[in-house]
Amino acid sequence: MMLLIDAGNTRIKWAVPSDHPQREGRWRQQGAVARGELQSLAQAWAALDRPQRICVSNVAGPALRESLQQLLQQVFGSGPVIEWFASTLERAGLRNGYRDPARLGCDRFAAAIGARALYPDEELLVATCGTATTIDVVSAQGVFEGGMILPGFGTMATSLALNTAQLPQIDEVTPLAGIFADNTVEAIVSGCIAAQVGAIEHALAARERAHPHTARRCLLAGGAGLVLAPYLVLGETPLEKVDNLVLIGLHTAMNHAG
Ligand SMILES: Nc1ncnc2c1ncn2[C@@H]1O[C@H](COP(=O)(O)OP(=O)(O)O)[C@@H](O)[C@H]1O
Ligand SMILES: CC(C)(COP(=O)(O)O)[C@@H](O)C(=O)NCCC(=O)O
Ligand SMILES: [K+]
Question: Does ipTM top 0.90?
Answer without folding.
Answer: yes
